[in-house]
Amino acid sequence: MQLLWLIPALPLLGFIILVFTKGQLPREQARLVGVGSVALAAAITLLVASDFYAQSDAQSSFTLVLWEWMSAGDFRAGFNLYLDGLSLSMLFVITGVGTLIHWYASGYMWDDPDYSRFFAYMNLFVAAMLMLVLADNLVLLFLGWEGVGVCSFLLIGFWYQDPVNGYAARKAFIVTRAGDTAFAIGLFLLFKELGSLHIQELLQLAPAQFTVGANTPTLIAALLLGGAVGKSAQLPLQTWLPDAMAGPTPVSALIHAATMVTAGVYLIARCHNIFLQAPDILLLVALIGLVTLLMAGFSALNQNDIKRVLAYSTMSQIGYMFFALGVGAWSESIFHLFTHALFKALLFMTAGSIILALHHEQDIRAMGGLRKQLPVPFWCFLIGTACLVALPPTSGFVSKEAILNASWQLPVYGPWLWAGGVFGACLTALYSFRLIFMVFGGASTCQPDEPKGWQFHPPLLILAVLSLLGGLLVLPAAGVLPTSPAGHAPLWAEVIAIGLPLAGIALAYQIYGRGQWQHLRQAPRLSHWFEHGWGFDSLYQRLLVQPLLTLANINKSDLIDQLPIQLTLVSSRLFAIFSRMQNGQLRIYVASMTAAAIFIIALTVTL
Amino acid sequence: MDWQQLLALTPVLLVASISVMLMLVIAFVRDHLLTCVITCLGLGGAAICSLVSVGEMAQQVTPLLIIDDFSRLFGALVLLICLISAWMTYPYLQATDEIREEYYILLALAALGALVLIASNHFASMFIGLELVSVSLFAMVGYLAHSRDQVKLTLEAGVKYMVLSGVSSSFLLFGVALVYAYSGSLTMDVFSQPANAVLAPQYLILGTAMIAIGIAFKMSWVPFHMWTPDVYQGAPAPVTGFLAGGVKIAVFALLMRWLMPIQGPYLGILANGLMAMAALSMLLGNLLALRQDNLKRLLAYSSIAHMGYAAITLIAAINIGNLSPTLAAEAAGMYLLTYATVTLLAFTVLSHLAAQDLTYETGQLQHYQGLLWRQPIAALGLLIAMLALAGMPLTAGFIGKYYVFMAAVDQQLWLLLWLLIIGSAMGLYYYLRVILILCKDTQQAATNSYRGLNPLIILLALLTLWLGIYPSPSIAWVQLALAGF
Q1: Contact (CB, 8 A) for A226 and A317
Q2: What distance in Å separates the CA atoms of residue A553 and residue A573, rounded to the nearest whole number?
Q3: Cβ of residue A604 closer than 8 Å to a chain B Cβ
Q4: Residue B349's closest CA among B392, B309, B310, B389?
Q5: How far apart are CA A428 and CA A315, in angstroms?
Q6: How far, in Å, are A132, A273, A411, B70 from residue A269 at the CA level?
Q7: d(CA B370, CA B439)
């Protein structure tokens, strides 16, 4: 347990080494530092976990006090790490999946001239993300939160030579910043109301001091939700995620699928008692999740870039997690986070292999028939897709069925929410298998050149096995979170929940596999609209960006700037005047001295 | 005078004996290094003597001098400043074609004057100390009168300083006479004495004002500042360093002893007068420095502004008007300490550069272009000095300015506070301009192997940073000095 601090410290050390060698390190050593530090962190996570399981029941927790970070008046924030079932679950995801992705990336990025810079950013990201989940107070959590934001910015814009990537990076950063601002205000308000930002204290204080449904907890929960929504790319701050695919594919796998984007889910789960005091907001969480998952599903159906399809599917799956949080299925949500991290990382990395094999071709219309040519990626992708679609008995099935089942239990809205979720599952099946049929089915149209070697296949295969079997694992998170609604949906509902995705697959086969029912593909207006993310980008462009630019244009010669401008003008004038007095002539000096003296004497005598 | 008192005077006597000894040594052997080492050893020894006796009883030695912890600690500070000044003079004089050894006699005499000044609580000793410093400085400023390169500037500066200093001293002397006429005494605490005089109290306040005029000249407060840029520019760089970082400290210490405990009905007039001078100094000093093209002139104007800042602490202390070591006194002490360090750093770099090439001293700022790449140590030293003068955090300058700020807020001197802020903003412009020029790369010149004053530059730069990062020891030091007030 005492080794806990090493888990974030090791990737940070890796970052420091890689930064201070300024990219002078040979590739082999950079790889050793970059991958090794995360792998070591994963090993220590296992050590810590075995300790954790050995000494404790599910409820227990462990705090490692490092040092006092800041203290001002009543405000105190320690640099303390906190480990319980929830953060341990997140540690598994971050270090475990993180190691596999780093491993894969060490091959994927091998030819990049900035190899060492890439791993420096990746290590910093892992360190920040670990800080985020291990923080025992919200200030430290915020440090990690902003840290992962910065790394996301740096990695999306990793190939900054292309201005498009820079734009995508800025967009991601600015859009999430909107959410972070709300989050920060929420923190201020929390401190004002409860006098603490220590998470465990807050969880005790919130039910004691707030009345359920009152304005204050609702406002605080709404502000925290704002932060979560920005980070996790949910409505209405979802626009940055598809563009974030401009980064290298391992980055998309690690940051924009497995870890960072799920930070919002973690935040809400972590602050569950605050959200429980605001049932309205909790319902809003469910609705946001539901609407996002449906909208992202429709968008995914109309994308032609393989990574953008996966990006929208990530958005949609995080929608499921929000949906689960909203309906009170706390531990199911975290479980889905876990399984999603496994299979979505698998999907992204497989997609990365395909992209490499096709020499950076990402358009699925240019692919086809790759099943024979790329057997390993094909099977891995198929397994990942099966999980995504929640086909039994994959891990995705276990976690998603649990969520849908819990939503059924919710009074009043339950069945409606359930119906939306099931429809979303059908949509997922449709767009996922569209991808399968378009990429792997049909006649072969290209000559792939598959990357092979110990950096490519082993991580994929490990993840594929984990994705298949992940449903059998029991996460330690359950003991920390509120209990989920018990009971089962009726049998017919379960049959529909399993059957509709199968119907979706059949439909996909009919349209994209066999090429029937082409009129369903021909809805140009609508599909164009879907393809561009329901027009949110142009909406925000018109609603926010343009007015701001107009205002900025009007105020180009800033009125307030006039003050400093005038100050400089006046200063330089005065300088000219006074330096003329400083002419170096002794008689002037003596005269001015005497004059001043006489003036002073006259004043003192008359006063 | 008993043994106790003689013992208390040891540092003063030691410094006095240096000059005598130097004269004797020079009569037999002319050796630049030897004279410099003797001076440094003597000054260092005197400083140690002073420091060792800290904490002992305060001694009034004759009516003229008081040796308390304030005298001891500030005396030690000024002695160390003189030591550093002697150190930076060595390579500078080595590079000139002037007779070198006699300079150190003058420096020792000036150090003696400064010591007397700090320890005086009597107008007679004050005048002696002040004149001892000034007369030595006339010669020091004009020391290079036979040097081919600098004769014109240095002579002009020396003569100017002498004439103007004479004028100011005449005011001061007349002021002392008026105070004596009023109170019948020359001790400095006349204000606290009950007035049993026949003359109207105006005589006292007039006398005080005229003494203040004389001292304002030494502090180069506006409107008595006209000499500063010309003398700073004309004097050899180490002398300018001593003038800015040493003499100002000693005179200000005297002001602290004289004015901070002052009480009486005329405080308002005195405070207002000082306030006007401080305000004008801050404004004019910064304004005139804005587009200066010679580094020494720029530093001269900057020192005018900085003395304006320092005056704020004095005004705050007068406003309080009690004897206890207040925040204002602490601020004054800290300001002097940090300002001396930073100024010495700047002038050490200047001396170091001027020893190699005189154009650094006399020429325009353009000459410093890309210095960071040619002479990294010297340029970094100058860079740190500029940052510190601008009051950047993590440097000594920040601590000093912060204290002044606190003192002004504490006494609610809002006008001065605003001028301090505006002045600091203007200051940033010209300090950063120097840094910009230092960093600007023009030609890939070969790195210079001249070592010169590098050790001293590194020492002072580290001290500047240390004072800024970890000021507690120096604060404790100042509090110790003020405890015996």
Answers
A1: no
A2: 31
A3: yes
A4: B389
A5: 11
A6: 13, 9, 21, 63
A7: 5
Q: Which residues of A touch B271 (CB under 8 A)?
A: none
Question: Which residues is A135 bridged to in the sheet?
Answer: A81
Q: Hey, are the CB atoms on A604 and B202 less than 8 Å from each other?
A: yes
Instruction: Kindly determine whether residue B290 and residue A572, on different chains, have CB atoms separated by under 8 Å.
Output: yes
- Cβ atoms within 10 Å of B146's Cβ, excluding its own: 13
Q: How far is B287 from chain A (nearest CA, A)?
A: 5
Residues of B in contact with A600 (CB under 8 A): 209, 213, 273
Report strand pairing: A75-83 vs B65-67: unpaired
**Using a CB-CB distance cutoff of 8 angstroms, which residues of chain B are in contact with residue A586?**
159-160, 163-164
Cα atoms found within 13 Å of the Cα of residue A106, Cβ hemisphere only: 26
Cα separation of B337 and B245, whole Å?
9
Report CA-CA distances (Å) from B246 to B77, B243, B343, B465: 9, 6, 9, 20
CA distance A597 to chain B (A): 7
Report the distance separating Cα A168 and Cα A179, nearest Å.
17
Whether the link from the prior residue into A236 is cis, omega within 30° of 0, is: yes
Are A582 and B269 inside 8 Å of each other by CB? no
DSSP 8-state code for residue B322: -
Task: Give, for all 485 residues of chain B, the pLDDT tens digit.
Answer: 688 888 889 999 999 999 999 999 999 999 999 999 999 999 999 999 999 988 888 888 888 999 999 999 999 999 999 999 999 999 999 988 888 899 999 999 999 999 999 999 899 999 999 999 999 999 999 998 887 777 788 889 999 999 999 999 999 999 999 988 888 888 887 665 555 667 777 888 888 899 999 999 999 998 999 999 999 999 999 999 999 999 999 999 999 888 877 766 677 788 888 999 999 999 999 999 988 889 999 999 999 999 999 999 988 888 765 545 578 889 999 999 999 999 999 999 999 999 888 888 888 888 888 888 888 899 999 999 999 999 998 899 999 999 999 888 888 889 999 999 989 988 999 999 999 999 887 666 666 678 888 999 999 999 999 999 889 899 998 888 888 66
* ipTM, 2 dp: 0.89
Residue with tokens 């705050």: B316
On whether the CB atoms of residues B465 and B383 are closer than 8 A, the answer is no
- In A, minimum Cα distance to B423 occurs at A571
- pTM for the structure as a whole: 0.66
Residues in chain A closer than 8 A to B426 (CB atoms): 571
Which amino acid makes up residue B129? G
Q: Which of B287, B296, B429 to substitute to test the interface with A, most A CBs within 10 Å?
A: B287
Under a CB-based contact definition with an 8 Å cutoff, are residues A319 and A290 in contact?
Answer: yes
Pairing of strands A62-72, A75-83: antiparallel
Residue type, A44: I
Residue B429: closest C-alpha in chain A: A568
* CA nearest to B81, candidates B219, B225, B251: B251
Nearest to A607 among B167, B213, B269 (CB): B269
**In the structure encoding, which two tokens stand for residue A104, read together?**
């894969």
Question: Can you read off the two tokens belonging to residue B312?
Answer: 């704020």
